[in-house]
């Protein structure tokens, strides 16, 4: 009898624009720093271009400098408090337990795990209301001094480096201090790519979407409800995604129906693999 262990499904989410309508820095942090969001990002882009720098490093350092200059506390607690103010798309608050129950009712032996891979700030995401649902949150982080003040970026998650974390989930090497470069046969990987779904909203998600599609996984693009889906249409034409829908996570929405249909396919595939493995001598 076989002993089939790959009975997990991973749902992996970008954050800004995917679960939340605006960049998370807009929910209190920039206003506390005394700067308008448009002015902040324009300044970041100008410095990025002038200094040929990585935009994520520029914006994180800019936040540190503004906090120091204006004597604003941006310790971990402050970031978490701002994270609690993040607005989410409709239905997101109840999405995770609903999806978990949907799979549990269909196949009790199959477990669903949710992950974040975001260029946003981990310190804010851990403070938001849905943080408890994620097995891991991979996002940009600061280094802190002994006074708990941010002094430098400790980790950045760029559009291309996001793919590293897909492989971490795939291989089950979740600790960022552990290498993922060693070869691992497909049958030994904790969650095969075809049992993974990636949710994103735009250009910064393209490398991750490409990896998912090339690896027989599933990619989904969302757009603001009532907004123009032009970018999503382009992603579909480029074969970066399976489908797209408005970022309405409520029960019965188009996104909800399409994701559950995809999960049905994955569950049936897992059950079939399990059955076949048990027939092997």
UniProtKB/TrEMBL annotation:
This is Haloacid dehalogenase-like hydrolase. Keywords: Hydrolase. InterPro entries: HAD-like_sf, HAD_sf. Pfam families: HAD. One of its GO terms (molecular function) is hydrolase activity. It comes from the Bacteria.
């Amino acid at each position: 009898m076989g002993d089939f262990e790959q009975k997990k499904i991973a749902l992996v989410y970008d954050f800004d624009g995917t679960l939340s309508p605006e960049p998370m820095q807009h929910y209190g942090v920039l206003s506390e720093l005394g700067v308008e969001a448009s002015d902040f990002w324009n300044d970041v882009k100008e410095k990025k271009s002038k200094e040929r720098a990585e935009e994520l490093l520029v914006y994180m350092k800019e936040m540190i400098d503004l906090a120091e200059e204006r004597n604003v506390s941006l310790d971990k607690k402050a970031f978490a408090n701002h994270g609690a103010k993040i607005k989410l798309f409709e239905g997101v608050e109840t999405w995770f337990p609903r999806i978990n129950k949907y799979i549990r009712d269909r196949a009790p032996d199959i477990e669903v795990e949710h992950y974040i891979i975001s260029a946003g700030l981990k310190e804010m995401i851990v403070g938001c209301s849905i943080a408890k649902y994620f097995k891991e949150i991979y996002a940009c982080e600061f280094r802190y001094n002994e006074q708990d003040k941010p002094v430098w970026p400790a980790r950045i998650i760029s559009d291309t480096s996001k793919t590293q974390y897909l492989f971490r989930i795939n291989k089950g090497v979740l600790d960022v201090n552990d290498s993922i470069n060693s070869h691992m046969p497909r049958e030994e990987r904790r969650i095969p790519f075809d049992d993974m779904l990636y949710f994103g909203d735009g250009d910064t998600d393209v490398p991750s979407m490409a990896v998912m599609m090339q690896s027989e996984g599933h990619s989904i693009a969302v757009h603001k409800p009532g907004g123009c889906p032009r970018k999503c249409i382009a992603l579909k034409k480029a074969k970066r995604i399976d489908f797209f829908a408005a970022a309405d996570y409520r029960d019965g929405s188009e996104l909800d129906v399409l994701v559950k249909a995809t999960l049905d396919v994955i569950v049936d595939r897992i059950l079939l693999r399990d059955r076949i493995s048990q027939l092997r001598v």
